[in-house]
Design goal:
This protein is about 50% helix and about 15% strand. By secondary structure, the protein is an alpha/beta fold. The longest helix has about 55 residues, at about 340-395.
């Protein structure tokens, strides 16, 4: 084995103690061979690097073909300033150094931690552990690799000076490391989320889990022999790691440049206090939960409206949904108001309010259109009945001259009453659709429908259905007159009775096949028809959204009366 002390002698500076980045060091990285990142917090004795304190990030190539990248760990103070001379403001010690050192590594060795750093209490990790040097260093590593979209599995070795053989202690550290990884990934999703549709696309894809990306080992290092064993494991693991697909030099330089990019994932993870991060996660979790609830409610409503059916008590249901979602969101995130995440809380609430307004408003307008169409059809049916009755009354000769004027006045009154009844029926249906919190009312729609009803009344005589009715009345009158003329004198009155049986099969389909067969014997007959229109949207609307019966049987009784 190659002694680590020998390897450190020829170190090449990558980032010096002032935070300056040396691109020549990146260019010296070999194109082949594994990369091992050795990270040690400042001012901490390490059996791997000796007593010398690391003041920057350095490269060192060993005889095994691997490349060591040495870096100090992250301090325990999150700093918003990344340029300066203080220990807290130095980007190397703020976590950007270990992030740049580990972003392209296949093996990451985190050394120099005492057992007290783990803050173990009865086998459980306290919340303060995540703010310790180990916790912040892990967060830096996870954020760097998440921002780089690394998919290759990484070996993560945590070296602790002290006894860590307890299974409870190991499980607690593993669980807390996984929690840190999930928080980093959630922060990444928050920063990249722009709208609900983009969030839905991200939910469709399965993110890489912690176990799929990291192979974590917690080892005890209290002597040089322990350190050699750790490096043995690191060398073997690095040789077995698959090479990364991205450019190594580009990954390192881009990661370290995040110290000056306030919108980057790494900068937000390192500079935001954990309380702010927790508040952001709370707001995002509430937003996603209520967004899913909204979509689950809207899907059946939209399907029903698509079949030209109204939603029962839509106005009251939509009002309750709107108020409950926003009030529950405000209640669950009230602890965030007034803090650093208050702006994000309001932004997520605005997105929820916009989704509610958009979906409810769309359903409101579609249902008003359905009511308007039904009102016009209802008025046309009433006018047809009045027109037919008027035509029959005109066939009776008037007894006095004033009967014509009375008929005209009666016809005018009947038509006006039909318009008023139809308009009132529309107002009654539209009143159940109103959503006061969104100012969705029927006022304008009622005026528009009243105007369209009067237009329908004024133009009804010229409409196709009125002309078709006139044609049918003319044909019926002409047929009766022809029968009277053809009837021979002296024919006796008679009544002939006939029976026809009609059967209709309606299998699955959209109406692209139909056929009929019949047989007549005197006044009796049988007719059988087939039409595959059970899945047709028009047929489903006729049956209120239900499929028609497969077999429909209808007897038909004919009376032929000869007078």
């Amino acid at each position: 084995l190659v002694s680590l002390a020998v390897a450190i002698e020829g170190m090449t500076p990558l980032i010096d103690s002032t935070g300056s980045f040396h691109r020549s060091g990146v260019a010296s990285l070999p194109a082949e061979g594994g990369i091992i990142a050795l990270i040690n917090p400042s001012s901490t004795f390490s059996f791997l690097t000796g007593e010398d304190e690391l003041q920057g990030v350095f490269l060192s190539e060993v005889d095994t073909g691997c490349t060591l990248v040495l870096s100090p760990g992250a301090n325990t103070i999150p700093m918003a300033h990344t340029i300066g001379t203080g220990s807290g403001s130095n980007p190397v010690r703020s976590g950007y150094g270990c992030a740049a050192a580990s972003v392209a590594a296949g093996v990451i060795v985190l050394d120099g931690f005492e057992t007290s750093d783990l803050l173990l209490e009865n086998g459980e990790t306290s919340e303060e552990w995540k703010n310790s040097r180990l916790g912040r260093s892990l967060s830096s590593i996870f954020a760097a690799q998440a921002a780089a979209a690394r998919s290759e599995k990484v070996v993560l070795i945590l070296c602790v000076k002290g006894d860590v053989t307890s299974l409870k202690q190991q499980a607690a550290v593993m669980r807390t490391a996984e929690d840190l990884y999930k928080e980093v990934m959630e922060t990444k999703r928050i920063l990249s989320t722009e709208n609900l549709e983009a969030e839905e696309e991200r939910e469709m894809s399965d993110p890489i889990s912690f176990d799929d990306l990291y192979d974590v080992m917690l080892v005890q290092v209290e002597s040089e022999n322990d350190a050699k064993k750790v490096m043995d494991i690191a060398y073997r693991s690095a040789a077995e790691q698959a090479p990364i697909t991205a450019s190594t030099s580009a990954l390192i330089s881009d990661t370290y440049s995040c110290s000056s990019k306030t919108s980057s994932l790494l900068h937000n993870v390192l500079t935001s206090p954990r309380s702010v991060t927790s508040a952001l996660l709370l707001c995002n979790d509430c937003y996603l939960r209520y967004s899913r609830s909204l979509r689950a409610k809207m899907v059946p409503w939209k399907n029903r409206v698509a079949r030209n059916l109204l939603i029962d008590k839509f106005g009251s249901q939509a009002t309750t949904l709107y108020n409950s979602i926003l009030q529950n969101y405000d209640y669950e995130t009230c602890s965030v108001s007034g803090g650093a995440a208050a702006g994000y809380r309001l932004a997520q609430r605005s997105k929820l309010e916009y989704a509610l307004t958009r979906d409810i408003g769309e359903l409101f307008r579609l249902q008003l259109a359905i009511c308007e169409s039904d009102a016009i059809k209802q008025l046309q049916r009433k006018l047809l009945k009045l027109r037919k009755a008027d035509a029959l009354s005109k066939a009776t000769p008037p007894k006095e001259g004033k009967d014509v004027e009375e008929r005209m006045a009666q016809s005018y009154d009947d038509n006006a009453a039909a318009v008023r009844a139809t308009s009132f029926a529309f107002d009654t249906k539209a009143a159940e659709l109103e959503v006061p919190p969104l100012q969705l009312t029927k006022t304008q729609a009622s005026r528009d429908v009243a105007a369209k009803l009067y237009d329908t009344l004024n133009n009804f005589d010229k409409s196709a259905i009125a002309q078709l009715q006139d044609m049918k009345l003319i044909q019926k009158t002409a047929s009766r007159q022809a029968q009277v003329k053809k009837k021979p004198r002296g024919t006796e009155s008679s009544i002939d009775i006939g029976l026809n049986l009609v059967a209709m099969f309606r299998p699955d389909g959209f109406g692209n096949f139909q056929g009929f067969a019949g047989y007549n014997l005197g006044p009796y007959g049988v007719t059988v028809g087939v039409q595959n229109d059970a899945d047709s949207l028009e047929v489903l609307n006729q049956f209120g959204g239900l499929r028609p019966p497969f077999l429909r049987f209808q007897p038909k009784l004919n009376f032929d009366i000869e007078l």
